[in-house]
């Protein structure tokens, strides 16, 4: 079983995406444990403050060291963690290979940024991996943490009933997925490619590879080696 601890200033913002579909199925089966932690429980004063002004001036607020250190150190007293991940726009771009690697871990902490970001000393001393889900800025790291959790959970053996499905997703082999079809075979004159109805699995796999390569060349040539172009 893998355990994911998510630290957030607004844990309710991430709760819903983790309580439905495949992620909830993984939790129900006891294959993944996801715990949400409200950083404000470690905040200061009656307002449970977790942020402060930027040293040197400038707009925005920064998450303070003390609440984050206290929260993560409290978690580390209970178990060892393989990764402490910070979701941020300047982190490593999330790709399928990284999700595959993380799905093999046992204990992961995900820290959701907020406001202008977190004090650099947190990044220097506590964070082992920084991940971004794209070249844009969100209001906080909660939605990004939900995305990362989903990519991890669906790869855990037993979560998806047809485990081969996850292995044929886009990006697993550095290719986008080929087109897929279902019934009816003929819809308003739009027919399913005959090869998919042939029962010739070797030809079907060949067709799927060729289509995947064709789509990847068109939509995401950056995923291919020069020899594939």
Description:
The protein has 229 residues and is an alpha/beta fold. It contains 8 helices and 9 strands. It has 2 domains: 2-153, Alpha/beta knot, CATH 3.40.1280.10; 168-228, Orthogonal Bundle (Trp Operon Repressor, Chain A), CATH 1.10.1270.20. It has a 5-stranded parallel beta sheet. Strands 3-4 form a two-stranded antiparallel sheet. The two termini are 41 Å apart.
Q: Layout of helices and strands, plus pairs?
A:
Elements (H helix, E strand, L loop, with lengths): L1 E7 L3 H4 L5 H8 L3 E7 L12 E3 L7 E3 L1 H12 L6 E11 L2 H7 L4 E6 L7 H6 L3 E4 L9 H12 L9 H5 L18 E2 L2 E2 L9 H19 L10
Parallel strand pairs: 1-2, 1-6, 5-6, 5-7
Antiparallel strand pairs: 3-4, 8-9
Q: Number of DSSP strands?
A: 9
CATH hierarchy, class of the largest domain: Alpha Beta
Report the order of strands and helices.
EHHEEEHEHEHEHHEEH
Helical fraction: 25-40%
Query: Rg to the nearest angstrom?
Result: 22 Å
Number of helices: 8
Strand order of the largest sheet: 2-1-6-5-7
Categorize the overall geometry.
Answer: elongated
